[in-house]
Amino acid sequence: MSTAPPLTGQVLGQAHHATRAVLDRELAAIGISFAQSVALNLVAAEGGAVRRAALVAAMTAALKAEEPLVAVTVEELLAAGLLTGGPGLALTGPGRAVHERVRAAVATITTRLYADIPAPDLAVAGRVVDLVRRRADAELADAGR
């Protein structure tokens, strides 16, 4: 019987990259990038409309990306007709449809990958990973001061 590796940044990174590769394959079939899916999700979470500055700030924080790269993603979504607006951005009909396809793909992936993991194990893993994320975010915030 093999033992599980200790939780390290390497183990977290490998799990992230493997899971992200599965998601990226699905997103490519839908015709959008990961960053675009994050933007659509953030707009949908705000009820389908959000101020551009708030979306850029939320994406920058979520993706740990530079603002100019995030702004390009927003422009791509506008050009594709998935978002509309100026200072205030809103999901279009096609944007809502794409967002629903992404949500369905994520739900299917999650069901497959987490299928036989006991709920208590998932709860412990979730708490530990969230704690690591919060500590890393705090370090990044301290470094930015």
TrEMBL record:
It comes from the Bacteria. This is Winged helix DNA-binding domain-containing protein. It comes from Micromonospora mirobrigensis.
